[in-house]
Amino acid sequence: MTQPHEMPDNPGDPEVTDPEVIPGEEDTTSAEVIEDAEVVEPEPELDGVEPVDAQAEAEAAADTEAALAADLQAQLDERTDDLKRVSAEYANYRRRTDRERTSIAEGARAGLIAKFLTIMDDLDLAEQHGDLEEGPLKAFADKFRGVLAAEKLEPFGAEGDEFDPEIHEAVQDLSSGDDKALGTVLRKGYRVGDQMVRSAMVIIADPVDTTEEEE
After folding, report:
1. Which residue ranges have biased composition labelled Low complexity (predicted)?
2. Burial of 193 by CB count in 10 Å (0-12 exposed, 13-18 middle, 19+ buried)?
3. Looking at the chain, which terminus has fewer C-beta neighbours within 10 angstroms, N or C?
4. How far apart are CA 106 and CA 193, in angstroms?
């Protein structure tokens, strides 16, 4: 049986008291115990934080990607529409420019050809008088008419044709009814393609009744 510690007769005697801790000296015993002890990190408290749902995150990421793809597609469609509009405007510009260029070229050609029509009139008079049946003048007339025909010069306005005030210049009206035709052609009209170079100068008469002529 263990005997209880007996109280010393003089408790205040330095020989029986605990050793005094001297300032400046560290108690290494407690430090060594703390170092040897395993440090356990406290787990963070997750009060109010719900656990992460992997499926929800995947769905959210998929929605974000779909929204981004839709936005990119909308931008691409808008740029495509802009490109189509610009292409259409440029195509219209080219067509309009080509028409204007063609019109200017035809106008210049028609203006040049119009200067030679007086020569054509003289050749027509010479032909009516029988001066183009043979000889150098006939050869010249054939070549001259061939050059203008190559430039698509075409005459119009022959006796018996229906009168058209848009292309026929009437100097006299000898018709008696509402139907009017060309009686006498004083000067032929000419056109280059669809462009009229000169109107025909005519005298208006009644249309010829072909049924009476056949009888």
Report:
1. 53-64
2. middle
3. N
4. 9
Q: What are the residues whose beta carbons fall under 8 Å from the beta carbon of 177, sequence distance 6 or more? A: 206
Exposure of 187 in the CB half-sphere (CA atoms within 13 A) = 17
For 155-169, the DSSP string reads EE--TTPBP-TTTEE
Residue spans per domain, the chain: 64-111, 116-151, 154-208
List the one residue out of 186, 75, 82 whose CA is nearest residue 128.
186
Q: Which of helix, strand or coil describes residue 190?
A: strand
Q: Please state, in angstroms and rounded to a whole number, the distance separating the CA atoms of residues 177 and 46.
A: 111
pLDDT value for 33: 47
Task: Give the Cα separation of 104 and 52 in Å (integer).
Answer: 78
The domain 154-208 having CATH identifier 3.20.20.380: the answer here is: no
> What are the residue ranges in the chain where pLDDT is below 70?
1-52, 209-215
∠ CA(11), CA(4), CA(8), 5° rounding? 15
How distant, in Å, are the alpha carbons of 55, 129, 165, 175, 183 from that of 179? 91, 32, 13, 8, 12
